[in-house]
Specification:
The protein is an alpha/beta fold. It contains 5 helices and 5 strands; from the N terminus they run βαβαββαβαα. Helix content is about 45%, strand content about 15%. A 5-stranded parallel sheet has the order 2-1-3-4-5, sandwiched between helices. The longest helix has 26 residues.
Length: about 150
């Protein structure tokens, strides 16, 4: 699947704590590479996702605790205190892209965002391609059985 190059990546930051959100936003803006918008609630983030389509999202795991589903439409990085918290939170995202410790260094944050921006687009095989692969497997199995039968007989 072709994905056009991103000129100035848009980052949607979804963090409810004012100081933490401001700190993360400042780190991203200091790079002078990203456009950043911040939401404090999941509902607000989903509205932003429709009116201001981001390229990646950073979502605080605390906002994903209630089992609410976050359909942001972009790869999302979970900000969590532990791997267990992140694993639980990732289940609520439509496109989880990994997690980052909340106390990670600024360079690690930027690196994680860049990794999400540059990872190859996921593609899925269509039903016709899957059918063709299935037919090939059946034909190869039939050929193997035939060859085995002729060798024995």
């Amino acid at each position: 699947m072709y994905r056009p190059a991103i000129g100035r990546p848009r980052v949607l930051l979804v963090v409810s704590h004012p100081s933490v959100g401001a700190g993360l936003e400042t780190i991203l803006r200091l790079e002078r590479r990203y456009e950043v918008r911040r939401a404090v609630k999941l509902a607000e983030a989903m509205n932003w996702a429709q009116s201001w389509p981001a390229d990646v999202a950073l979502v605080d795991a605390l906002l994903l605790r209630g089992g609410d589903r976050a359909n942001l439409g972009v790869p999302a990085l979970v900000l969590a205190a532990s791997a267990a918290e992140a694993a639980s939170a990732e289940k609520s995202l439509d496109k989880p892209g990994g997690w980052l410790a909340k106390d990670a260094a600024s360079a690690d944050l930027i690196s994680a965002v860049e990794r999400l921006l540059t990872r190859p687009a996921e593609t899925s095989a269509g039903s016709l391609a899957l059918f063709a692969i299935g037919v090939l497997v059946v034909v190869l199995l039939a050929l193997l059985i035939y060859l085995t039968w002729t060798a024995v007989a």
